[in-house]
């Protein structure tokens, strides 16, 4: 039997920019231990059944499957979330959206809507940070709604609820102080759709028409009917779409329109204030 240290030294995982991290996550999961265990006990022998699972998971990773889908979980904000191929994998850049809206001048008991919630990542992060907010996440995919509900239950976030709706279609008459969304924003012919982890994620959560802005146009046009006077709309978008999204918001009548940069320095989220 091999030791933990030997496995990590000798295992090859080509074509992954995060090979060492991937291997550590997969081995720790196979062992049922945290990653810190690998560094603390490198001389420990790895049981055959653990080695078999590790090698099977490595092969899935070599085929390009994202580690988050292999493990069925992904960290976001300060939360550990269950994930599945029915939803996008939450990414650190989206945390900029959470940070931005948490700084808005909202009431202590605001109603908040997360459109296209997927795993529930944004909704649950906001519910966790603002226990007196009432947060609703909606998604058109039933499996995503059930997944988000499981995450809320496991995290014991009773102020977050989830319903099935294609954008705002099932929310007639409801208004919110804040609407947020990480909608599809990739153009249908974008070559990135055939590269890396994105190949395994649902196209319906990625692609939005010829220029990637179809869903954002719809949200900017329909959100005002569901915003309280003085409410806010904030959207994630592609790193080259900020100027176009700001223009859409201004044309619709939003004020205080601005964009914020992600961890890589790109303008990745934009939002505005609906007049009182």
Write a structural description.
The chain is α/β, with parallel strands linked by helices. Helices cover 35% and strands 20% of the residues. The chain is built from ten helices and nine strands. The chain has helices at residues 4-10, 19-31, 35-40, 48-62, 67-71, 95-102, 121-129, 142-155, 214-222, 242-252, and strands spanning 73-76, 79-82, 111-115, 134-139, 160-164, 176-181, 227-236, 255-261, 267-273. The protein has a seven-stranded mixed sheet with strand order 5-4-3-6-7-9-8, with helices on both faces. A two-stranded antiparallel sheet has the order 1-2. Helix 2 (19-31) runs antiparallel to helix 4. The termini are far apart. The model has no long low-confidence stretch (mean pLDDT 90).
Q: How many strands, which pairing sense, and closed or not: the largest β-sheet?
A: 7 strands, mixed
Task: Give the structural class.
Answer: alpha/beta
| Number of alpha- plus pi-helical segments | 10
The Cα radius of gyration reads 20 Å
Globally, the shape reads elongated
State the total count of DSSP E strands.
9
Low-confidence stretches: none
Q: Give me the side-by-side strand order of the main sheet.
A: 5-4-3-6-7-9-8
Question: Termini separation (Å)?
Answer: 69 Å
Average of the residue pLDDT scores: 90
Helical content (DSSP H or I, runs of 4+): 25-40%
| Elements, N to C (H/E) | HHHHHEEHEHEHEEHEHEE
* β-strand amount: 15-25%
């Amino acid at each position: 039997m091999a030791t933990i240290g030997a496995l990590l030294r000798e295992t090859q995982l080509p074509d992954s920019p995060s090979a060492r991290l991937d291997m550590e996550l997969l081995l720790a999961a196979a062992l049922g231990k945290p990653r810190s265990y690998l560094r603390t006990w490198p001389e420990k022998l790895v049981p055959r059944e653990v080695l078999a699972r590790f090698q099977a998971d490595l092969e899935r990773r070599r085929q390009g499957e994202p580690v988050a889908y292999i493990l069925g979980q992904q960290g976001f904000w300060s939360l550990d979330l269950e994930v599945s191929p029915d939803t996008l994998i939450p990414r650190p850049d989206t945390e900029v959206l959470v940070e931005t809206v948490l700084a808005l001048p909202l009431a202590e008991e605001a109603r908040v809507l997360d459109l296209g919630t997927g795993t529930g990542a944004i909704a649950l992060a906001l519910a966790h940070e603002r226990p007196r907010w009432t947060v609703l996440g909606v998604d058109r995919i039933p499996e995503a709604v059930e997944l988000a509900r499981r995450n809320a239950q496991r995290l014991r976030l009773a102020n977050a609820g989830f319903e099935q709706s294609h954008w705002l279609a099932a929310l007639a008459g409801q208004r919110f102080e804040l609407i947020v969304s990480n909608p599809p924003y990739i153009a249908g012919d974008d070559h990135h759709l055939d590269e890396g982890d994105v190949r395994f994620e649902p196209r319906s959560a990625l692609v939005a028409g010829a220029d990637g802005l179809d869903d954002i146009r719809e949200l900017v046009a329909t959100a005002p009917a569901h915003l309280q006077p003085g409410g806010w709309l904030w959207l994630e978008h592609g790193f080259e779409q900020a100027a176009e999204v700001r223009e859409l918001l201004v044309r619709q009548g939003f004020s205080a329109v601005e964009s914020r940069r992600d961890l890589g320095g790109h303008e990745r989220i934009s939002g505005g204030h609906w007049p009182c």
